[in-house]
Amino acid sequence: MFPNKKVQTLIGQKIQVEMKGEKNILEGTLISADDYLNLHLIDTTEISNGERLRSLGSVVLRGNNIILLNPVKEQLS
Amino acid sequence: MFPNKKVQTLIGQKIQVEMKGEKNILEGTLISADDYLNLHLIDTTEISNGERLRSLGSVVLRGNNIILLNPVKEQLS
Amino acid sequence: MFPNKKVQTLIGQKIQVEMKGEKNILEGTLISADDYLNLHLIDTTEISNGERLRSLGSVVLRGNNIILLNPVKEQLS
Amino acid sequence: MFPNKKVQTLIGQKIQVEMKGEKNILEGTLISADDYLNLHLIDTTEISNGERLRSLGSVVLRGNNIILLNPVKEQLS
Amino acid sequence: MFPNKKVQTLIGQKIQVEMKGEKNILEGTLISADDYLNLHLIDTTEISNGERLRSLGSVVLRGNNIILLNPVKEQLS
Amino acid sequence: MFPNKKVQTLIGQKIQVEMKGEKNILEGTLISADDYLNLHLIDTTEISNGERLRSLGSVVLRGNNIILLNPVKEQLS
């Protein structure tokens, strides 16, 4: 399964995303993703060292500025 | 709805945009957007910690340098 | 009108451009632009806080490194 | 063998990846890669000077933000 | 004339190039350029404040990391 | 000869590569390159001021993060 298909399997789940221009991690529920990894998240919050900093609500992230993303659950295992 | 379609639904609304080369957030009314997330905003202002810094008027933003964008209203909810 | 068409309407006008690798703003007359927002400017100068720093003459700017551009006139309104 | 084919040969192996927005190296087992070098890794950990810092589990990395990647074994030879 | 065609007219001339990852300007004779603004320069030197720092000889520059380029002559006018 | 063809002529030679996310230069033998300038190098070492810092062995470099590359020999001339 290619990486963009892996991302499709995460729709509806909470994910964490590290962006190029952000010191903090974004956490939100993945609503949609396209092949460029552009993402639409809702209930998005900025997180720093496990602490919630800022609530951003519904955001669109530009795929080419994503460093990495991972599902919140799998991160715990 | 793919992320670029989500952005289309924001046309006519006030949005906030975080750019890669900008410390401050840009806020303006979205006039148009293409599939690369290139954006045309009017009544654009730079904002830092909720304070308006600089009025930029009509601006074109290059999509690949967008980190994230969100509608101003949804951010309040 | 899509953002790249908006840029086409600025040909012949003085514009300001913020580039990813530049602390200062570039101001010049827009001679041509393509769909990637690659730009050819003439009479280009670097500007910092309204002061002209360096005259660069005729320059080609790579579109993907543009953060934002705006017409000089509209900025005043 | 083109570079993207070289990456395909690393599937199932432990690799190290240096990302643009990461001070630390990521090490994980390569599950899949596409032609843009988007990668899906599992058992991913952040490494700094040979020390494991953080366990990230299953991650998707955006190809255009990869600086370099290499197989862990070949690095020892 | 589109920006990439403007660059074609500079083949054989000395140009200066500002790169995203370089503090210093590169100056060399333009041998070839493609539509992505990938450039092949010869007799390339790094320049800082008009002083020659390092001779790099024949170099290939990746177009997407070019901030701006301009002909050396036009810069003087 | 377009820049990507110039790079093809360097296959089998030692080259130096400056990457966007690397303070140090990478030096290695070029095994393959594609049109995006993705590179496969072997016997790669990190170099700082002419000193070898770290041996990386076989590495794949993502083309869009290359600032410049040049052949080691030509650099001496």
UniProtKB/TrEMBL annotation, chains A, B, C, D, E, F:
<dbReference type="InterPro" id="IPR010920">
    <property type="entry name" value="LSM_dom_sf"/>
</dbReference>
<feature type="domain" description="Sm">
    <location>
        <begin position="2"/>
        <end position="75"/>
    </location>
</feature>
<dbReference type="InterPro" id="IPR047575">
    <property type="entry name" value="Sm"/>
</dbReference>
<dbReference type="Pfam" id="PF01423">
    <property type="entry name" value="LSM"/>
</dbReference>
<dbReference type="InterPro" id="IPR001163">
    <property type="entry name" value="Sm_dom_euk/arc"/>
</dbReference>
<dbReference type="GO" id="GO:0003723">
    <property type="term" value="F:RNA binding"/>
</dbReference>
<protein>
    <submittedName>
        <fullName>LSM domain-containing protein</fullName>
    </submittedName>
</protein>
